[in-house]
């Protein structure tokens, strides 16, 4: 009998260890992630926003992992989701879903593992795609601000959490749209974007953010959707667009380099996403790709002229071998490679240290 009890308590203890292991990864001091950005990270906010026409809440989005559409703009998980898994915490709910659950009474508080505010189509410039009803990062920030102010999020959690900021691709893509009438030079446009990012950083720091992760833009000039732009080549990446992206990324890294001095007690890292993706593109077989140019799901030139799921689309049966799932967005396979490189990679992938190291650092 005593033996049995002992075994039972041992079982309970080992179960506790297992469940702790599942809750927060060994060596991690990060209980939550707050996610800001665009379609690369949107986990369904636009889906819950009935005013918004930038959507991926229909098949075959989500088909290779969730097996149903979730509002994510890929066939599976996003980079934010995959890093959350590395941290050992459940995936962050879209803010709009958490809000709806509080409004209809199915939940009485906001989740403790963080919240995803990202909105597909949005940019760092407030005007970007405003006609589509997207939520720009300035409004995403206000949503977070209100939760902090109303004590819906524990300040202790905020201080330990990671803050993901991933935005800017839509601003730059739209600069080349035939409907955009440039009032700024490419350089001034990029500077105006960086001003917004800088102001965003100051605001989240004031609200308590201490572990700040800025993701560089990928090579936006290589997305299949460039087939929609009159000036873009289809046999190679759009150099002019990539040049703007690289300028923006350089400014972004400077902002990250300044975090320690400007914001006492805060840590900042810069994810070197552009160069990392170009390395995948240059060595497709090594990374499991047979197609790094076209969309697995879509229609027209490069599969980039029609959104996946829209009239006339076709879908490949080997999405893991495609760099792009649809006209703008990486496949889950690409997202997995990127998140691995950010979690455990060296200086060529993320600087000044990787997310695994950041997660294990304690905040004074
Ligand atoms: C976390 O950091 C401590 C030292 O601060 C180190 O001993 C430990 O191995 C680290 N754990 C992981 C998982 O990196
Ligand atoms: C949708 O638009 C209406 C009318 O403009 C506005 O009152 C409402 O707040 C908007 N809803 C969301 C979720 O943005
Ligand atoms: C409450 O809202 C959530 C999110 O929109 C939804 O999934 C759920 O079905 C709603 N529940 C009720 C009882 O209305
Ligand atoms: C890659 O996919 C695109 C879109 O499906 C297609 O047009 C293109 O021919 C493919 N390229 C290769 C090398 O298979
Ligand atoms: C996958 O698609 C290719 C053409 O895109 C086709 O030749 C092949 O038979 C398909 N394989 C399966 C298992 O459906
Ligand atoms: C950094 O990692 C990359 C990719 O894993 C590798 O090719 C490179 O040699 C490493 N560089 C250093 C300085 O360790």
Walkthrough of the structure:
The radius of gyration is 21 Å and the shape is globular. The protein has a single domain (29-359), classed as Rossmann fold, CATH 3.40.50.1110. Strand 5 (211-215), helix 9 (239-262) and strand 6 (267-271) form a beta-alpha-beta unit. The chain has a seven-stranded mixed beta sheet. A two-stranded parallel ribbon has the order 7-10. It has a two-stranded antiparallel sheet with strand order 8-9. The longest helix has 24 residues, at 239-262. Helix 5 (137-149) runs parallel beside helix 8 (186-206) and helix 8 (186-206) runs parallel beside helix 9. The chain has 364 residues and is of the alpha/beta class. The protein has twelve helices and eleven strands. The chain binds 2-acetamido-2-deoxy-beta-D-glucopyranose (NAG) (6 copies). Residues 1-27 form the signal peptide. Keywords: Hydrolase, Lipid degradation, Lipid metabolism, Signal. InterPro entries: GDSL (IPR001087), GDSL_Est/Lipase (IPR051058), Lipase_GDSL_AS (IPR008265), SGNH_hydro_sf (IPR036514), SGNH_plant_lipase-like (IPR035669). GO terms for molecular function: lipase activity.
Keywords:
single chain; alpha/beta; seven-stranded mixed sheet; 12 helices; globular
How do the strands and helices of this protein lay out in sequence?
Elements: H1 2-23, E1 33-37, H2 45-48, H3 79-87, E2 93-94, H4 95-103, E3 114-116, H5 137-149, H6 155-160, E4 162-166, H7 169-175, H8 186-206, E5 211-215, H9 239-262, E6 267-271, H10 273-282, E7 291-295, E8 297-298, E9 314-315, E10 322-324, H11 332-344, E11 350-351, H12 355-360
Parallel strand pairs: 1-3, 1-4, 2-3, 4-5, 5-6, 7-10
Antiparallel strand pairs: 6-11, 8-9
Helix pairs in contact: 3-11, 5-8, 8-9
Bound molecules: 2-acetamido-2-deoxy-beta-D-glucopyranose (NAG) (6 copies).
